[in-house]
Specification:
globular, mainly alpha, 71% helix, Farnesyl Diphosphate Synthase
């Protein structure tokens, strides 16, 4: 049931992304080809899926969710392009294919990331199918901007770079990932919920707590898979964190301790949804997927 619903959301997200990306033949075509390559080349689409499922939990119209789903995935794709660059993680593979800078060169990859970041906010400002209330659109833009900026994903990456080769406490490690990974996942859930104009503050608070928990659980499972995963299944090289001497949950807690911590966060995420009815069941299902996935 969960896998089937996730697949439906992934398919819808892929179609919406394809429609909102510039056509490959549109000038400057090399830049647009690089953007499409980075976005459409694969991935789990967890963040768009969370937009759709959070919206479903509060009865938001699916058509109003396509824009926010695309915006958050454009930000995610831009971050991966930049993370893979030689100056950052220096990765050669992403989703089982050459990283954007390997396929198009470093300069064009940087521009593709920059353009995707701009496109995300253009979608939130102009997408005709989204919620029409300009105040809610503006709020979504603020949510996504904070999640992507120095108080979110970019700040988390800066903390990560500074932490390489150092030992971190659990509190320090979680603070890094609340910013680096968790912020964009929280933004996904919030933008989905905000697509329902009648959503109340209590539901938003519950959903935000849920998103914070699954954001950390997602990162823990990523860290575990970097140790135990199959590169062919993951579509990227494993062991990179160990080679770069990065602080991770398995290093700090051990593999079993990391799994137990992810399970604790999963249970806390479910507890956050207790006051929501069965429309939130898909959020419960995807929380289980996040801590059990093999890729």
């Amino acid at each position: 049931m969960a896998a089937e619903l996730i697949k439906i959301c992934q398919t819808r997200a892929h179609q919406a992304l394809d429609q909102r990306l510039p056509a490959a033949e549109l000038h400057p075509n090399n830049l647009h080809q690089a953007m499409r390559y980075a976005v459409l080349g694969g991935g789990k689409r967890i963040r768009p899926v969370l937009v759709y499922l959070a919206g479903h939990a509060v009865d938001a119209s699916p058509d109003m969710l396509d824009g926010p789903a695309c915006a958050v995935e454009f930000i995610h794709a831009y971050s991966l392009i930049h993370d893979d660059l030689p100056a950052m993680d220096n990765d050669d593979l992403r989703h089982g294919q050459p990283t954007c800078h390997k396929a198009f060169g470093e300069a064009l990859a940087i521009l593709a990331g920059d353009a995707l970041q701009a496109l995300a906010f253009q979608v939130l400002a102009q997408d005709p199918a989204m919620i029409p209330d300009p105040a809610i659109r503006l709020r979504m833009q603020g949510v996504l901007a904070q999640a992507a900026g120095s108080r979110g994903m970019a700040g988390g990456q800066a903390i990560d770079l500074a932490a390489t080769g150092r030992e971190l406490s659990l509190v320090e490690l979680e603070n890094m990932h609340i910013h680096k990974t968790g912020a964009l996942i929280r933004a996904s859930v919030l933008m989905g919920a905000l697509s329902q104009p009648a959503v109340d503050a209590t539901a938003l608070e519950r959903l935000d707590r849920y998103a914070k928990c699954i954001g950390l659980a997602f990162q823990i499972q990523d860290d575990i898979l970097d140790v135990t995963g199959d590169p062919a299944t993951l579509g990227k090289t494993t062991g990179a964190d160990r080679v770069l001497n990065k602080p991770t949950y398995p290093v700090l807690l051990g593999l079993e301790g990391a799994r137990e911590h992810a399970q604790m966060l999963y249970e806390e995420a479910l507890a956050s949804l207790e006051s929501l009815d069965d429309k939130a069941d898909p959020l419960r299902w995807i929380a289980a997927y996040i801590v059990e996935r093999a890729y």
